[in-house]
Amino acid sequence: MPQPRFLILADGDFGPMTSKTANSVIRFQPDRVVAVLDRSQAGRQVQDVLGFGGAIPVVGSMAEGLALSPTAVLIGIAPQGGRLPEEWRSWLADALDAGCDIWSGLHTFLSDDPLLVERARANDCQLLDLRRPPADLPIASGAAKETDAFRVLAVGTDCNVGKMTAQLELVGSLNARGVRTRFVATGQTGIMIEGWGIAVDAVVADFIAGAAERITLEGARDADIVLVEGQGSINHPGYSGVTLGLLHGSCPDAMILCHQATRQYLGDYRHASWLRMPPLPEYVRLYETIASALHPSRVIGIALNTYDMDEAAARAACEAATRDTGLPATDPVRFDGSPLVDAILRAREARVALRHREGPAGRTGDAVRR
Amino acid sequence: MPQPRFLILADGDFGPMTSKTANSVIRFQPDRVVAVLDRSQAGRQVQDVLGFGGAIPVVGSMAEGLALSPTAVLIGIAPQGGRLPEEWRSWLADALDAGCDIWSGLHTFLSDDPLLVERARANDCQLLDLRRPPADLPIASGAAKETDAFRVLAVGTDCNVGKMTAQLELVGSLNARGVRTRFVATGQTGIMIEGWGIAVDAVVADFIAGAAERITLEGARDADIVLVEGQGSINHPGYSGVTLGLLHGSCPDAMILCHQATRQYLGDYRHASWLRMPPLPEYVRLYETIASALHPSRVIGIALNTYDMDEAAARAACEAATRDTGLPATDPVRFDGSPLVDAILRAREARVALRHREGPAGRTGDAVRR
Questions:
Q1: Global pTM?
Q2: CA dist A56 to A22, A32, A51, A342, Å?
C-alpha cells in the first residue's frame, strides 16, 4: 500500500492540548500530512499552532483541503464520548466522492453509517475504523507476565498528558542504542502511527485485559523490551477501569509515570475542584499498589510534559519531580530522554539478574502470596 | 406482563458454584421455575443438587422441559467469555417453536442470530438480551458521590463468591427494618431478578463507570440506601477493569467485602499457583486505597459464603474474619445478617452526622486533595 497523504480533520479543536490524534500523527509522520482542517484557525501554519509541524497549512473548508489532493481524511480529534459530530458526515461524504479513504478512531464506527458506506462503495474507497475491536478476544489469564521481553507500561496522572508521545520517543532512543524495542499501541492514534494494535477502550469491558494481554504477547515476540501505550489514569472518574484492565492485562515489570507539569486538575473535569490531582508520590503509591496485586511492578521514572513552560521552569519541574519521588525525571520530547532510557535498562538488568539468581521458578513472580 | 414460568438451561454445568444465574433465580424466585435442563443431572431434584430449591425437577432434554409448559427458557449458566454454545441454538429454536420467550445474559446476543430472530418472529416470541447495553451511555463524571442516598458497594475476593446473593439478603433485611433500600443490578442475573439495571461488563470499556453512575443515580432517587451489585475482583487478571470502573462510577460511601471462606485461589485460574488469594486485610487495603482515590470509602463488614462448610467451621470462619480484619463478619444467607445490616446503618449515621457537622460543603468529600 502506498503511503497515505492525510487531510486531518480537527475542526474547532486544533491546538497543543486538544487535538491529540492530529498532533501525534503530525509529530511522528509529518511527511504524510498535506493539511489540517479547522475553520477557527484557517490560514495559519501548523508550526504556529503547535510549535512543531512546519509549514503544513490549516485550511478552512473540506473543498479547500481536497484541492491539495489528499488520499485520505484522518479524523484528528476525539470528542468526549467518541461520537461523530453530525455536521461532519456531509464533509466525509464529499471526501469519499473525491476518492479519499477515511481513517477514524471514533467510538461511532463510520462503517455502521449507511450514507458513508454507500459513498465509500460507490467510490471504491475504504472506511478504516481503527477502534473496531477484533471479534475473538480472550479473557486475560495473566499470561503476559511470562514473556521474556521486559514490559514497561506508561501510566498517567490524567488523560492526554503525553504518555504515547513520551513512549514513542523512548522507543526510538532504545532502538538507537541497539536494544530491540517495540511499541504496543493500545489507542487509535498509536495504531495510526504503528500500523497495528487494539484500542483497548473500545472493546467490551470484560475483554479489556484480554486485548491488552494479546497485543503485549504479540509485541514481545521479537523484542527485548516492549513499551505498552498507557490509557487514562487510575483515578479518572470515567476511564479508570480501562487503565486498570490495561495494567493487569499487560503485567508490566516497570512503569513510567507521565504527567503534564502545570496541570492541577483532572482534565475533563476542571470545573470540579474536588478532582484536584494528588501529588506524584501518591500516584506512585496507587499504581504500585494496584499493579503489584497481580505482578510486582515499580514506577521507575517520571516523564514530564512541559510544552507550556519556559526552559528554566521546565528544568525546575523535572528537578522537583525527582526531589518529590526519588526517581529520574525528564521531558523526553524536549530534553534528553537518557535518564528514562537508563532507568528502563537498569530495571531490565535487575530483572535478568533476579531470574538468574532465582532460576526459572522466579520468573512468574509472586505478588499475591505474602 | 404475567409472571414468566422458566425452564432454566444449565446443561453440563448445574451445581452449587457453577450455575450462578440459574441458582440465583431459583433462590430468589423459586415459584417462577418449572425445571432445569442439565443432561448430566437428569432425574434429580434441584434441592439435591444445590441444597435449596425444593422439588423442582432436573430434566434431560429440551422436549422433556417443554412438556412442563414453561413460558420462557432462561439461560442459566455463563460460559467463560459469555458466548452461546453452538449445540444450544437448535434447542432454543425448538423452544421458540413451542412459544417460549428466551431470556439471555450471554455476551453473544441472541437477537443478532438470524435463525433465532426468524423463529422468534414466526412464533411471536421475544429474545431478551439482558446484557445488551443502552446506546446512549455517558462518560462518568463522579456525579454519583452527590446522591443523598448512602451508597454501599459489594466488593469481592474473586468472581462468583456470593456478592449479589449477600446483597439481596441485606436489601431484604434493611427494608424489613423500614429503611428504604434499593438493589442496583449491574449484571445479568441481578437484572433478571430485579427487572432493571445494566450489565456493566457488557458495555464498551470507556462507559463502564458511566453505566454504573447512571444506574446508581437512578437507584438513589427514591431510596435512603442503595446496595450496588459488585462485579469481579480488584486483583482478577481478566475482570479487574470492570471492578474498578464500577467502583469509581458508583462512588460507594462504604463497601462490604465478600469472600467464599474455603477458596484459596482465584476461581477461573485454579491451575496457577501464583494466583493464590492474599489475606482479607490485604483486600481491604487494596479496595480502600483505590476507592478513596476518588471518594473516601471504607470496608465496613465481611460477607462470607460458607455453603460448603459444616456449621462449626462456618462460625469459626466468621470469627476468624473478624479477628483478622477487625470488622463484623457473617454469612448473611446462612446465619443472621444483622452484623452487616447494623454496620451499614452505623456507617450511614456517621455520614449523616459528618454532613451535619461540616455543612453542605462537606458532602462532596475530598479524597484527592491532600
A1: 0.88
A2: 12, 10, 12, 35
